Amino acid sequence: MYKILIVDDRVERKKSLLDDNSIKALDEFQKKGVVTFKTSLSIDSTLPLEKFNDKVIGEYHIVAIHRSWLSQNNLINIFEEYIKVSKKFFIVFSGGTTTNGFSNNFRSLTINAGKFYSSRLLSFLKDCENDIAPSLLRFMYGNSWKLPLLLEYRNILWSGQAKINLEKEEQLKSLFGSVAEDITAEYIDKQIEKEKLNFILL
Fold first, then answer.
1. Structure pTM?
2. Res 27 pLDDT > 80
C-alpha cells in the first residue's frame, strides 16, 4: 500500500469541494491508513534537505500540500528545493492556481484545489490502497493519461525540433519503453487514435 499525506490548513476546504459520499469515502481511506490529513507540519526552515525526508514525511510516498500553508510559513523555497532531490511524489494545490503543470519528470504536480479535491483523488487513493505504483499523470488524466504526452510529442516532431532534452526523453520512455530514433509523427498518430479508442471504450 502506498501512503499519501495531505497538508491543508483549512479543514473545511475539502468539505466545500466534495459531496457527502466523497467525504465518507475519504474517511474510510483515512481509517485504513491510505491517507493522512494534517493542518500543519513541524518544519524547521534550516533543516538540511537530506533530513527533511526522515523527520517530516518519511513514511509517506506522496505528499500534497496547499500552497498557502507553504507561503505563510516561508517554506516555498526549501520545499521546491526538496522536491528536486526527493524520490517521492508531490502535489501543490491552490484555489488560485489556474493552470496545471508537471515538473521533475512528472514527480511533482501543481493543480487547482477544486481539481485536487475531486473524484480523481478518490481514484488515486484506491490505486494506492491496491498497491498500484503512483502516477501523477494518471492522477491528472485518469486512464487517458498517455494522450496529452502523445499530442505533445507529435507537435515536437511537426515543429522540426531535432533534439529532445533529458526530461522529454524520460517522458518518452514512459510511453514507448525506450527512445527510438525512428519514432515518427505517423507512428504517434496511430498511438493517439488507439488511446482515443481505449478512452471511448472505458
1. 0.76
2. yes
